[in-house]
Amino acid sequence: MRQGAARPRNRFDLAEVGGAFGDLGTLIPFVVAYVAVLKMDATAVLLPFGVALLVVGAVFRTPFPVQPMKAIGATALTQAAVSGGLTGDAVVAAGLVTGLIWLALAVSGLAARLARLVPRAALLGVVMGLGFAFMLEGVRMMAGQWLLSAVMLAVTLLMLSRRWPAMLALLAVGAAIALLRDPSLAARLGDQQAALRWPAFAWPGLSASDLWTGALLLALPQLPLTFGNALVAITAENNRLFPDRPIDERRVALSTGLMNLLASAGGGVPMCHGAGGMAGHVRFGARTGGAAIMLGAALVVLALFFGDAIGLLFELVPAPVLGVILFLAGVELALGSRDPEAEKTDRFVLLATAGIATWNAGAAVLFGIAAHHAVRAGWLRP
Question: Which domain holds residue 108?
Answer without folding.
Answer: 14-376
